[in-house]
Amino acid sequence: MKINIFYRKKGIDKHSIEKVYNSLIPYFEDYNTSIIELPYKSKGIIKRILNIIYAGVNQSQINHISGDIHYCNLLMCRKKTMLTIHDVYPIIRTSGLKRFLLKLLWFDLPIKKSYQIITISEFSKSEILKKINVSSEKIKVIYNCISPIYLFDKLTFNESKPNILHIGTKENKNLNSLLEAVKGLNINLLLVGLLNDSQIQLLQTYNTSYQNFHNVSDIELYKLYKQCDIVSFVSTYEGFGLPIIEAQAIGRPVITSNLASMPEIAGDGALLVNPLSIKEIKNGILSLINNPELRETLILKGLQNIKRFEAHKIAQQYIKLYKEISNSKK
Length: 330
Known about the structure:
Helices cover 42% and strands 16% of the residues. By secondary structure, it is of the alpha/beta class. The protein folds into two domains: 2-145 and 310-327, 3-Layer(aba) Sandwich (Rossmann fold), CATH 3.40.50.2000; 163-308, Glycogen Phosphorylase B (Rossmann fold, 3-Layer(aba) Sandwich), CATH 3.40.50.2000. Helix 6 (175-181) packs across helix 11 and helix 9 packs across helix 12 (292-305). The two termini are 17 Å apart.
């Protein structure tokens, strides 16, 4: 069984998808598995057409599009191809002609050209079914796995000035609301991702202590998790929410949203708040700072929760599916 897993071209602060599949590859060692990285970033018509041709030329017995580059399966054999769709946020945040083209080229046509669709949460499956004309039977939920580098690391909580790690600076990551919520609190923010001018302005206006990191490696991100006292992931929309389980694995209390996929992924191991309420975010942060019993309870429940996402368990689900596609006569 020959398996080709297709990755997008490497880019700054874009490696969460690759992180997941890199953790699974060692479990595919009994099979002939290759990583095929597209030669061009998904910008402009010409480069996307070249990516489609490159992917078509490099197709194999089983072709797995790992996400984000859905369109690259358009020249592939349908019965040999599976596509992972992480979320439908791109067509939620756009409108008009751009939305029409995005939906057609990233979702409608690639879904028709795929034997099987994988998505990463029950929430994302429900969103796909709402937005796209596709049969529920064609979509299978396989959760993201957690990287084996994320090991428990006990920390003495910094009660005087806790470090709060927040990953992501795009609109759905809800950083501006977090900045409003921690205004005036004696904390230090560890912010991962490129800050825009308005975010920098808020940090300066509120005189908030912070450090900013971007284009960090997996090891560097792991060190930031170890350094922090609390992980904030109060997004307004996520298809999964990998930082939730990474924080749980290391043993850090997590505050996350009660919307979208986040309750499904966090289980009982995180403090859930309404991300649209600055007051709730602030009260949640204060509860984690001032209540050591709550922190300990969430940490213990988080360590139980991450067992669902162990790489060897997720890999077995993929191997079963690869075999089904390999044996299919459709």
